[in-house]
Amino acid sequence: MKERTSRRTFVKQAALGAVLLPKLDTNLLASHGVSNEKDSPAATPSSSNATPTPELNFPRTFTGRNLARIAFPVGGIGTGGVELGGRGDLRLWQIFNRPESGDLLRYTFAAIHVEGAGAAPFTSILERKLLPPYDQWDYREGIRGVGALDMPRMTEAVFSSSFPVAKINFSDPHCPVDVSLTAFSPFYPVDADDSGLPIGVFEYNVKNTSQTPATVAIALSIENPCHGAKWGTNVLRSIPGSTLPTGVFMTNPTLAVDAPKSGSFALLALPEEGSSLQLTEAWPNQGIYSLEKIWKSFAADGSIPKDFASEKEKDPIGSASIRTTIAAGSTARFRFLLAWHYPNRTPEGIGWGAPKGMEKVNLGNFYATRFHNAWEVAEYTIKNLPELERRTHAFAATMRDATLPASVKDAAASNLSTLVSNTSFRIADGSFHGYEGCSNSTGGQGPGSCTHVWNYEVATSYVFPALSRSMRETSFGYATQASGHMDFRHKLPLGYEHFTLTEPDHQAAADGQMGQIVRLYLDWRISGDTPWMLKYRPAAKRALAYAWIKGGWDANRDGVMEGAQHNTYDIQFLGPTGMMQSWYLAALRASAAMAKAANDNEFAAECERIEQAGREWTDKHLFQGEFYIQQIRPVPLADVDPALLSGEINTADPHSQLGPACHIDQIIGQYMAGMAGLGDLLSADNMRTALRSIHRYNQRMGPYAMLGTHRMYAVNDEPALRICAYKKPEDIPVNPMAYSSENWCGLEHAVSATMIQYGLIDEAIQHVTDVRARHDGESRNPMDELEWGHHYARSMASWALIPALSGFRHDAVLQQLTVQPKMSTKQLFRSPWTSNTGWGELRFEANTLTLTVIAGELNFDSLVLPPECGVQTMKLGEEKITAASRRNTDSCTLQFKKEISLTPQQSLRIRYAAPNLT
């Protein structure tokens, strides 16, 4: 078996791969609208010669060739699932606890049969016609290899996506009815448990637009996925309260109890009143003629035959067919559920590091502790479906109805799908873990909940805070050693073994470790759970103090990280950088605040002293008028603690460094500090200028572009932000940092969110739009922003765009709510909001702010508004309330006499008028 290339191996191979482009011809630049003038730092950034990014709509719609790459994940958090293709096909059954690109099921499709409606009978698979290329299947099988490919299909489809809900409208000139599919799994903020159901809901809606009745049958057929040496077994089962079977239950008794595919699967149909249901637990086993026999029967009258003579003649493909007559002008619903239950998750089976001798320990799945099999999953879902569906669609609606830029909504919503991909999972004890991303065939990419990748995402903190706290509990409860060294990847099961110096990934990651401290602070403020924070603060204190060990990152405690700093670029920085300084300063500030809450005033004072020194030094020595650079500082190998190094590195002559680069991550710590409400880590003016410089210099197709010889995530004339840019050819190091010429979606989202924090709204929206336009359905899957793997965790940084623009922050420790949008509220402004205990919508319209809870609750006793909000009246539900107010040029703060508690039954409406602040 060919060995997979690791990120570190790739770095070694690519270390020499980044060079500046040859000097560009001025006339050529001008022809593309690019100025070669040396603009001042404050000048408007030069445009790039990339193709202008088109405006996007939300929900986005795709049709024709733009359906080809769409694969919409259907499943719950930590459950795996199936991908719904843009054509309406079900593909990539990743329900067995690891990613697989080739796990297909034969003869799995939905089909429709229509009689009446003033037209000839019509029968078709409910998928759009196949799209090229046609040579992607096994050459020995032609294009028949995955089954049912040369069957009638609909002429066209339009796919509309607003995760967690997908909708497909099918069309065909010969079909006498309108047909659409709505697919989803329960998914909405805060409730990770019910957003973690291993189930998909597929609802076909048929409208009879003719003047006469139409009789319609829709059948969904699925092969038993419990493969082994022998086929599985299908049986018909009923749900409680039904006297007739309602679905097909699939198992494989021949598999060992601990086999990866030992489990169960269920196909259920939920016919409406007046509809009939036909179930077939198996097709006749007649080889390649089975499909022909089934199809002829269905095309004749919409039925599926059951004429096998014995058990041996059964092929375990189950079918459920709903049939009804639809009056002229009416619509009927055909609803199906797919549920699965595969409880066997082992470190060995999923490609995750384990303590020695524990490779085969069954970690389990959290959902399997709630349900014994797939049928129980389905029963629970059916019982609670009205509310599960209401909340899921309400969440999609808050995103759809928001007045935020379309690209922001698209980026934030689409990347939430990473939580239901196999990038993420929950084991039996409920703890949440993740790979960096998913590979095509070898399982997860980058196991261990890699801290310096997951540090960028904020979807867990904001949308599912309990999952974020779970990750902090792992980092500080298990991964942090007595010395303060934190494993930046952890083994499973937890609590048995750390990485040793002889193992790969043993080194401490400076950015990962500092970032986790900031994330602990953020999760504390969101949850308001001070006892929880105090439980893990001793480990966080050790993790920060680890920077001060002999041979460490800041051994002399001067606030400057000059030691060997392993980081997300799979290298060690030698010498201070803006990136690592900003992470360090953010961790120091967060640590000081947590220390004060613990009455550890001596440690708080030390953190504040070091932070102040580091802040002043960084602005003075790393900021070069336009951006923050790296000072490369060679150091003897003997002066570096060996636990900080990975692989071979000549610390006395370090390669793969930044030098005077304009680095996209140069103030990444400020990104997270801003989300956490920690304030400016460095000079606000300097950081704003640095962000403008990133916008100016790092454009992939701009005059400062580098030759892309590494991995390519943008090609041809696609606009993107490079990781590094250099103003002059002589600035680039002889051996530049690996990955420097690449563009990573997660970094583009993070820097865009930081731009929003500092008022560069147009620039931020441009970059987010560039990212999403690259994912157009034809060239890339819009539900999959990949990096070192599909569904890459870092891209969930895109959720930061929403609180950054809406200005919504709920500090549950202070019980203070801040609502200060970065966008104008003179016109209608709507945005979703989330907290630890609820979620809903905020709305500014006609000088009125309305805060609405859709689910849960929101509690606070003070409210910080924009300074123009001079309050006139306030109503909590129908009750008039008052508050003491305090205004300045930055804010208007309301202090309520008692705690405000918002619920779905009780909104807050504040009528305001602009005051005279002079």
Q: Outline of this structure?
A:
The chain is α+β, with helices and mostly antiparallel strands. The protein has 19 helices and 41 strands.
Structure overview:
- Pfam families: DUF608, Glyco_hydr_116N.
- This protein is an alpha+beta fold and 918 residues long.
- The protein has 3 domains: 68-389, Beta-galactosidase, Chain A, domain 5; 402-805, Glycosyltransferase (Alpha/alpha barrel), CATH 1.50.10; 824-913, Immunoglobulin-like.
- It is built from 19 helices and 41 strands.
- A 9-stranded antiparallel β-sheet has the order 2-9-10-11-12-21-16-15-14. The chain has a 6-stranded mixed β-sheet with strand order 8-7-6-13-20-17, with helices on one face. A 6-stranded antiparallel β-sheet has the order 33-34-35-41-37-38.
- The longest helix has 28 residues, at 374-401.
- The N and C termini lie far apart (74 Å).
- The relative contact order is 0.10.
Strand arrangement within the widest β-sheet reads 2-9-10-11-12-21-16-15-14
Overall geometry comes to globular
- In DSSP terms (H or I, runs of 4 or more residues), the helix count works out at 19
Low-pLDDT segments: 1-5, 8-48
Q: What is the CATH topology assignment of the largest domain?
A: Glycosyltransferase
Which value, in Å, is the CA radius of gyration?
29 Å
Q: How far is the first residue's CA from the last residue's CA?
A: 74 Å
Give the tally of structural domains: 3
Pfam families: DUF608, Glyco_hydr_116N
InterPro entries: 6-hairpin_glycosidase_sf, 6hp_glycosidase-like_sf, GH116_catalytic, GH116_N, Non-lysos_glucosylceramidase
GO molecular function: hydrolase activity, hydrolyzing O-glycosyl compounds
Enzyme class: hydrolase
